């Protein structure tokens, strides 16, 4: 351990960023990187007035991740929280949350339509089909629309190779996880294709009742009609089923008793996404595309988070739920890019139409709570059993047709050398025609908003630049929240159902300033961003004593911080990367209760829960000259302390963990091993509790030390 801390102290003498230097070249500096996500068209970093990072193919390949969070957490300012079996939530300029403040894209197209956000959307991703990942931090609603508030993650898939390529491999760990994966492609004449598939299986893991299986297949076909015209087909199908072990109580966590309290909770998903894109280059300064797409998603759950149990009212009984959320999407998006010789002007303009019919239902199940011995009022549950199901006792039952329409434009120009000004706007209109079977109501709700952004880039030197921007974010409440009965109403309560019809859209105003530089012949690269964002009507969840959730639109919140990252490559053998963020997330105006008898009336001035001030990810990678094709790395993940509850009474200390990776390639065969949680640290990904004095915390326990092994064969006919 002493040696590890000495190494980390050495890392701490630098301030370094995210994966910006490839092993075989020094020209991949951040200033020359080309990004697609921030401007919807290929743009150099020094002309992009936002905080953006790229995770390269090299980084993805070397991580050999079992889940996407292991890759995405390498981005400064990003904390993707593992909830087990590839389930997750996110923290980018927001606390760790499941709210709809993040936009997940697949080759620039949202994985979900507006209004049907799912914080677990990335569990559908095929890690074996990723070419790169771009992460934009802060609002980009002016280009991508609602939900692009805290951050936008664009997963860019592998394009068909020119020469035939094929790879396959197996991966396993010491806790019953194994994955089979294969991919291949080629270009024959005018047609190129790439196919990638994975099949994952978890059995008898370190946590009881935590099995899962996942199968994904991605296929892309490019037809080069002519040198200037292309037709691209992209299809994904995924099937997922997972036990939901849920969280554990405090005593079980510290005793490392990784025992699920239920053996009946689950999550299952069937997802199909397909698109057809026609691209055309009119000339060297003008190009257009139009994409038609279809989504078909089926999600069913008996969620562990849906179990409601009160230790003071009737501790031997509890309630659960079974739900189903299915939707289809039919849509199209068209975009045109026009460049002008005058002042290096560029215009990006487009429009989107999306029709998504959705059905949702949820019903109550009765549970028996088998208690652990303990003092009355402070007891904990050993296990739950299903007593009865009540399909006719609904917590939600609605159908809705969602119509999304948007149009956007962004304009950039350079009035003087080394200065680029960018401005843009987008209008979004979401109309929901609904039929709520529980209160027998029908109607329409419309959420619309025009969002703006403007920014400047100034690059006084070839090796350095600065930027500033103002941007707006917009997020209507998800329809799952609107049409869910409020706690204490509907179901078997005997109280008429009441709903969240009055939830308001959340709006955000963000101001940021940042910059970057590259020194020592591109061996040292550094970037940073300072941001200040205020949110109004932010949708927040209040955890009640029985673990049920109440939704509120907070009056105002504040989010501010600094993100930093850098990389230093003193030689071809050594690469050092450091990245992190310091942030504060605060309630400015949030009324918690209208009851005079409640001890806490508002949360004004309090820190938001699950909001660590410090978080970061750093890594030292070593590629020895004395043994070519060997790679080793040591990674450090930091998550600082944070409040477990909204009234700021108890903190969780956070954690520091280390991961080690090693791999060796001989000809086309690659053998590798990862050790996750190298020091076997006891820690939790998330800890939360209700806003009451005697509330008991729940811990989403993290895995003990895990050994991952794999072998992969790569075949290529490159000339």
From TrEMBL:
Entry's Gene Ontology BP terms: iron ion transport
Every TonB-dependent receptor-like beta-barrel domain range: 395-678
Stretches assigned to the TonB-dependent receptor plug domain: 45-152
GO cellular component terms listed in the entry, alphabetical order: cell outer membrane
Major localization class: membrane
Compartment(s) of residence: Cell outer membrane
Record Pfam families: Plug, TonB_dep_Rec_b-barrel
PROSITE patterns documented for this protein: TONB_DEPENDENT_REC_3
Gene3D superfamilies cross-referenced by the UniProt entry: TonB-dependent receptor, beta-barrel domain, TonB-dependent receptor, plug domain
Keywords noted in UniProt: Cell outer membrane, Ion transport, Iron, Iron transport, Membrane, Receptor, TonB box, Transmembrane, Transmembrane beta strand, Transport
Topology within the bilayer: Multi-pass membrane protein
Assigned protein family: Belongs to the TonB-dependent receptor family.
Protein name: TonB-dependent receptor
Organism: Flavobacterium panici
């Amino acid at each position: 351990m002493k040696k590890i801390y000495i190494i980390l102290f050495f890392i701490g003498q630098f301030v370094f960023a995210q994966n910006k230097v490839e092993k075989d070249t020094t020209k991949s500096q951040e200033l020359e990187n080309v990004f697609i996500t921030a401007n919807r068209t290929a743009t150099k970093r020094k002309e992009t007035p936002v905080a953006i990072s790229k995770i390269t193919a090299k980084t993805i390949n070397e991580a050999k991740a079992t889940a996407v969070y292991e890759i995405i957490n390498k981005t400064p300012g990003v904390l993707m929280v593992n909830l087990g079996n590839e389930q997750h939530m996110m923290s980018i300029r927001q606390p760790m949350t499941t709210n709809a403040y993040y936009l997940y894209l697949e080759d620039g197209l949202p994985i979900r339509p507006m209004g049907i956000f799912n914080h677990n959307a990335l569990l559908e991703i095929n890690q074996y089909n990723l070419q790169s990942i771009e992460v934009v931090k802060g609002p980009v609603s002016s280009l991508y629309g609602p939900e692009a508030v805290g951050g936008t993650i664009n997963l860019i898939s592998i394009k068909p190779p020119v020469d035939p390529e094929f790879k396959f491999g197996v991966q396993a760990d010491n806790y019953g996880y194994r994955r089979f994966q294969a991919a291949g492609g080629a270009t024959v004449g005018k047609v190129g294709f790439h196919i990638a598939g994975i099949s994952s299986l978890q059995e008898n893991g370190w946590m009881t009742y935590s099995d899962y299986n996942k199968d994904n297949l991605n296929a892309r076909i490019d037809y080069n009609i002519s040198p200037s015209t292309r037709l691209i087909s992209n299809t994904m199908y995924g099937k997922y089923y997972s036990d939901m072990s849920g969280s554990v109580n405090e005593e079980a966590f510290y005793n490392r008793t990784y025992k699920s309290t239920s053996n009946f909770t689950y999550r299952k998903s069937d997802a199909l996404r397909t698109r057809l894109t026609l691209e055309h280059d009119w000339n060297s300064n003008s190009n257009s595309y139009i994409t038609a797409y279809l989504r078909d998603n089926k999600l069913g759950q008996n969620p562990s988070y849906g179990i409601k149990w009160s230790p003071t009212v009737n501790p031997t009984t509890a309630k659960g739920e079974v739900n189903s959320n299915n939707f289809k999407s039919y849509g199209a998006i068209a975009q045109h890019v026009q460049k002008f010789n005058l002042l290096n002007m560029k215009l990006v303009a487009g429009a989107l139409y999306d029709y998504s019919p959705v059905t949702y239902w949820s019903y109550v199940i009765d549970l028996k709570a088998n208690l652990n011995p303990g003092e009355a009022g402070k007891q904990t549950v050993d296990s739950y059993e299903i007593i009865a199901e009540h399909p006719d006792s609904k917590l939600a039952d609605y159908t809705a047709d969602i119509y999304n329409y948007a149009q956007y434009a962004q304009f950039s120009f350079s009035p003087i050398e080394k200065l680029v000004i960018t401005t843009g706007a987008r209008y979004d209109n979401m109309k929901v025609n609904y039929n709520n079977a529980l209160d027998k109501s029908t109607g329409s709700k419309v959420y619309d908003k025009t969002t703006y952004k403007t920014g400047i880039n100034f690059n006084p030197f070839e090796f350095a630049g600065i930027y500033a921007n103002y941007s707006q974010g917009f997020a209507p409440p998800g329809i799952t929240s609107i049409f869910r009965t409020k706690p204490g109403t509907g179901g078997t309560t005997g109280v008429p159902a009441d709903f969240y019809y009055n939830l308001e859209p959340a709006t955000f105003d963000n101001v940021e300033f940042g910059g970057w530089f590259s020194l020592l012949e591109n061996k040292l690269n550094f970037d940073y961003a300072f941001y200040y964002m205020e949110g109004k009507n932010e949708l927040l969840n209040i955890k009640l004593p029985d673990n049920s959730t109440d939704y509120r639109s907070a009056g105002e919140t504040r989010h501010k911080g600094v993100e930093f990252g850098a990389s230093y490559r003193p030689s071809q053998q050594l690469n050092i990367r450091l990245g992190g963020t310091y942030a504060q997330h605060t309630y400015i105006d949030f009324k918690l209760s209208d009851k005079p008898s409640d001890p806490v009336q508002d949360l004004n001035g309090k820190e938001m829960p699950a909001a660590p001030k410090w978080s970061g990810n750093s890594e030292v990678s070593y590629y020895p000259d004395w043994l070519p094709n060997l790679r080793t790395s040591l990674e450090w993940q930091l998550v600082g302390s944070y409040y477990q509850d909204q009234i700021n009474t108890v903190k969780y200390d956070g954690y520091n963990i280390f991961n080690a990776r090693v791999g060796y390639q001989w000809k086309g065969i690659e053998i590798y091993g990862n050790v996750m949680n190298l020091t076997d640290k006891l820690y939790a990904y998330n800890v939360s509790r209700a806003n009451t004095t005697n509330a008991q915390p729940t811990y989403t326990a993290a895995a003990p030390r895990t050994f991952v092994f794999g072998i992969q064969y790569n075949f290529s006919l490159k000339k």
